[in-house]
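Example 3.2
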Amino acid sequence: MEHQMMIDRRHDALGDLRIIPDEILCGILEFLSARDLARLSCVSSVMYTLCNEEPLWMSLCLRDGGQLQYKGSWKKTTLHQQNLFTALEISREKPLQFAGFNSLFLYLRWYRRFTTLDGFSFDSGALERKKELTVEEFRSQYDGKSPVLLTELAEAWPARNKWTKDQLLLNHGEVAFRLSQRSSKKITMKLKDYFSYMELQHDEDPLYIFDDKFGEAAPTLLEDYSVPHLFQEDFFDVLDPDQRPPFRWLIIGPERSGASWHVDPALTSAWNTLLLGRKRWALYPPGRVPIGVTVHVNEDDGDVNIDGPSSLQWWLEIYPKLADHDKPIECTQLPGETIFVPSGWWHCVLNLETTIAVTQNFANASNFEYVCLDMSPGHCHKGVCRAGLLALKDNAYPDTKNGAPIDAGVMNHLDMTRKGKRLKISEGGKDGHKHDNNSNGIKGSSEIYNKLQNKDFLYSIDFLAKFLEKDRDHYTSVWSPSNIIGPREMRQWLHRLWVLKPAMRQLIWQGACLALNVDKWSNCAMEICAYHNLPSPLDEEKFPVGTGSNPVFLVSDHVVKICIEGGLESSVHGLGTELEFYNLLQKTRSPLINHVPEVVASGLVIDENGAYKPLSWDGRGVPDVLADYKLVEGECGRDEFSLGVWSKKKLELKSPGSISPSKIFPYIIIRRCRGDIFAHIRDTLPRDDVLHLASFLGEQLRNLHLLPVPPLRYGIKYKINDMSLIGCPNGLSDVSEKPTANVFKEVSPKGFSIPPEWELIVAALSRRKENLKERLSQWGYPIPSSLIDKVEEYIPNDLALLFNLSEEKNTFNGYNASPTWIHSDIMDDNVIIESCTHASSFDGTTSDPRTTVNGTPDACNVERSPRNWTPTHILDFSDLTIGDPLYDLIPIHLDIFRGDVYLLKQFLESYKLPLTRILNSVPSYVSVENWKKLKRISYRAMCYCILHEENVLGAIFSLWDELRKAESWEKVEEVVWGELNNYKCSG
């Protein structure tokens, strides 16, 4: 018997897999389904043990997100969640036991699950405790400088008495709160179920409530506390509640739960007030990465990820091995105490018992520039902000004190690999010994920091800003997805601060220079104004407005837009197309001309080493300054719009490349429209005024879509059948015989052709169809993963089918012989609304020139009923293109109408143009069933949403929460676009 106990069961039970460490085997098992785990557990005794580990089933259960109800074990919870739990499982609850299998990895994990934290007795720690501080004392001694533990700030809060387990359960037991766990999915539990889970669980990293929407879920909780007087200043309060990034959290967690090592997002500061229990805090100053932690910074977009052990694991396994000089600043927080964590400080929290707390992050005068810096595009400065000079290669430290230039490509120390395009900052144990959880470590913390002491790392904005990539343009560069707000929201935030906090404009300007290069574009706008004899921008006018990707300045009665989005080639084509469009409006005398801004001037501005030289350009021909860029193939006439819409359409089909910094920027100056954009006043408009807006948009879209489309000419060589150019199956014989496997098995006949105009459009759509699932997966939440898996079955293999082609006649079968102009970006910030108290009369008899077009009344201006506001203009035609008019309904319905079907019906009543194709016959290569699908206007609209270059699906699943549980794309199509199938053209 004794001999049998000494036998290692692992060798025979795992076979060749025995060479794989247990931690890797357990990691692999997390990719399997519940059914696969059940099958694998039958293979051997060791597999049975590994496949029944609670942490494994916890990971499996949390994979799909949703609302949880804990059943006493994670395996039971998972089986119940997937409707796999039966009476058979109940009869086999007692697990099997096997001798002769020992695993240090599993033992340590088991120990962390069942250990208690009684040994962490209260101690004062190294962190200062302060009873009373004035705002002046706090700002001078601690704000932006050092953490501090503050007592008695919350003594008057109702939460001191009301935020107990019993009271919260009584008042909010049925409310579902969001849980924090390492999962990309939203996980919630009702509070009563969560409290039950806390009593039953033995997890090594327990779930804890960490909900930034608790104020919306349980509004009365916001009445139980107030922001302490020391932290009242918050620059994000200029944003509307639904626009500001997450900033406040309710935190409830059991013993052993907590937050692993991290730096707060965007280098904001935070305060955290404890109402119940005890918390253990550990903190390191900025730039000092805790031992056991690895920082990853993506070189492409600056996204920052931090890998490290759980809070409990760090305290149990790493902390005891630290030398005294390597230990963090520590404290035990007691009920009623508030801890302040300054910008950039690393911190880790361990709940010593059940705790309830509330916390808020904020941006104020002391950290504002750091927040702007952190959200700036690029990666080098992000690494330095979090890891100090460890983010630079060994022996490659620039002389930053003397202002020497810094190589933005210089990163990290010896263990960094460039191949993965991610810098890794990691440390081993003291004296070079590696910890088991950090095999990448190379040197002890004290050794590294002793080495760097003479390098003068400073957590100062002047020092850190030197690590910005100077050639990167912050308006056009890809922003990090880990930023707390996107670039559009950032531009809106900074502009609001500029307008609403005039006393702090110097600070705001400094932050905006870091985030937006605002000084560069303001100087550029001033030179453009001087060149065209326009007034110089006033102080309040030198800051760009709007949320778009191009700097826009309001100067007196004019709007100056500098076109930089997408790089030189894209921006030049955008302006060329816009100028071609305005010229067409004049030639055709379209009624739309009364509802678009008047063009005052246009041209190119050249950056000559920081000095800006403007040149006029009306869109015709190719300016000499652009000749060397070879933007157009073939000969171009000087009076032709060679860089117009068809050249722009061809540009869509080129393989995207990196956007190189440009020294030439197109610009356009238009007359400033009176009124306000719809986005600013939409919530104050009466329903009748919004209905009138829908009619206005229908009429103006009708005018836009009736404009003649320029022919494919201008001497440009369009290589429509060049596979390397368009990558499209239509018209390409060697591709058309290789369909993608999905519901549309039919493929158009070999040699099938369609008009060149439509072939370019189909080719552009086909380009977006490439790697479709991968792109939707990257967008992720709230797009359901189950629908992403089905998307290729829903989209037709041959996208030309969307436009009704007929093989029998080898011709295009549709209402329009050619595609139409489309704006493609009519959103709530591109529509001007004017107060009727200030607007001219629109009763059809006024002498106001805007009410007539060459003496003919403009139908959209005929007064139907008294209104408070009336729409007057549509803005921003820089995204103009050629395509299916149905495409224009996407931003209108989702952004302006926000899915309101009655507004969509009102729009269609005024639009009066066909949205469907005339179906003469069913092509022989398409089944009747699929042809019925293709006939639905709603189907075509849904396909455009899926193939859209922007994350339109994210907007759809945000507007219609119930669709996140939809089982098919047909259901989504019906809810969002079903009304289109009832549309009968009356024009």
